[in-house]
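Per reviewer request, we include the raw input and output of the structure prediction for the construct analysed in the revised manuscript.
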Amino acid sequence: MSAPGVVEWDEDLELVRFATCSARWDPAGGDPRSRSLFVVASWHDNDEIPAPSIIGEITDLYERSALYRLDGRESHMLPGSLRYRRVPTVPRFPRERSSGNVQRQFTGVVATLRVDACTEPTTEDIAAHHTRIERRRRTLYLTGPASSFGATVPAAGGQLSIDLGDPRITKRGHHASATGVVRGTLQQVGVAVGVPEGYSTISRVEAGIPAGNVTAPLFVVLTIDATGIPGTPP
């Protein structure tokens, strides 16, 4: 929905405040006070991103639907068929209303909410969020022969030094293009069944057994030590 006028921008808490509530705003987007904003609310929790939560009363509720013409396995919305219908309640899984090869499909709900309370994230919440982001950027997902990770299978929770320039290892992550030796903490160690044929599953593997005893590739999740990021001084 279109946002009301911004009353305050709290860059430290990554918030824009309105008269009755607030919303998350990424400071990378610049000053929001000179922009036309839309506010998006959801009842789905997202623990990864600290955002305000609101409590309020729904005063009006509208079902949104449109007509779609079926064309094989595809469907196309008919122009001018979007409709809003005021309803007292909305079922969790609304049923489509069909007529031949034309169906009126439920596309969403529009609700008018009177906000009674708004809870904002704390400074600690924001700091923890940025810590998770920074840690995620230091995490690599590595797949390669067991011998490329040492003489024995390493254990999750332990430390590992590894040469990212080893051509036997495939890498994913923010620092996947890096080469050279890095050291970090192992978050996961498993056997990648199905590599390189296609889709793979990760199975458990016993730590400490000789690498030569493992015929399938290992999948390793490694979080590089903060002082050992490639391209930065130790």
